[in-house]
Amino acid sequence: NEYKSYLSWMPQVFVKLRAPLEGWGLVELQGSVECPDSVTLRGAHIGDLHVDKSGTPQLVIGHHILTGKIQKLDKPLGVMKKTGDRYWTIGAVIREKFIFKTRPKPIIEKKK
User: What pTM did the predictor assign?
Assistant: First the structure.
């Protein structure tokens, strides 16, 4: 299935955004985020997402920075939470995604 292969090629992560963005977003990365087998990424702080004044998103992971773009979703996604045996509530609606396709660049400190 073409859709399944696309999802495995571009890992997606849901993120809760703080001011000034507010709401929820979807981060799409080309490649993968790797960690030791003894460490789980579930609920872990992976990096910091910033949007500059021109609207360009930047993702800082460790000593690397990725520059991406913001794209509106064709169809909004609902963030749902199970509240009972057969009941779900919609907690948020995701309307845009942050796409990072380029290779990360190292952050190098300039000597004074």
Answer: 0.68
